[in-house]
């Protein structure tokens, strides 16, 4: 069988891309696993982009209106009138996208693991059997440890982190996500508590399993109240190139991931649109240019991450004092954008009083963010 486009990996981004391409191309998707979904992922997606990307209401488990930020010794709350983020069932989202793609004529090959390219064809392994599929274009949407990236020699010096995420039974405010920043427990990343309902929340972090367990204790959640536990990985950085010959990378495979929060679903889908345009124009080389917004956000996020890693918990406490002030909260509540962190930072730094206070904590913070 020969296709115009073969997508390797049926995660949210691969399935989304299959839908985008189905009308204009003969498309196939190959997936290593025998079923969709199941990856460690909290499934928080910015509400505005969820709607804009046309994703299904049926996969939304909860709508989040605000966030409570905790440091070691203080906390502040950001509350909006309308939902800012959705907590999504990844399996339901991926099934919905795949079923629609099949309905549009896309062929799926499940339980088929891409092994590499040979004589211009993709070589797959399916239950011990070797299959070859030929296509004009190959798209690696196979996640952070992409085999397609390896096959085209794409390299990264990015930072790889292990992530732990559990569904825990307890008592939660279903409207608010909790964000805990405590470098004494976890110097690598923040902790999140994202409620699915009043009774269940998805609790996670990136770093060590020990840090995760220490957080459960502080948050007064019992390890024995965990009803689902998953581990996964994420990488922050740049992987190059995104295109080599007739092969392109998209989503986590191209490290299109926010280094601020580790969210990758929206950025991968944004870039899927740019990839579609480049394929339609027959100019795969233009794909990266179409991802300008995502590249700008990633480069900001990497600077933000460097600052975060260089800060002590005392610095964090002082930044919390600024961000928890009435003026900063007013800016965040009025102008913060879930997926556009450059805009959010600019809005804060435009306020002379906030800018002066942040410079006092560390001029490097402001210099790097600007
Ligand atoms: C703990 C944790 C929490 C997260 N929370 C969030 C969140 O709240 N919001 C958010 O936006 N992002 C979150 N992320 C990141 C998010 O999971 C990724 O950005 C997202 O899954 C990227 O989608 P993708 O389709 O590019 O890749 P993936 O979801 O990784 O999908 C890749 C697919 O390719 C398949 N595959 C891999 N290798 C092969 C092969 N050789 N042959 C065939 N198929 C293959 C895999 O089985 C998989 O189905 C989180 C990540 C982690 C680890």
Automatic annotation (TrEMBL):
GO terms for molecular function: FAD binding; oxidoreductase activity, acting on the CH-CH group of donors, NAD or NADP as acceptor. It comes from the Archaea. Residues 3-279 form the FAD-binding domain. InterPro entries: FAD-bd (IPR002938), FAD/NAD-bd_sf (IPR036188), Geranylgeranyl_Rdtase_fam (IPR011777), Geranylgeranyl_reductase (IPR050407). This is Bacteriochlorophyll synthase. Pfam families: FAD_binding_3. SUPFAM superfamilies: FAD/NAD(P)-binding domain (SSF51905).
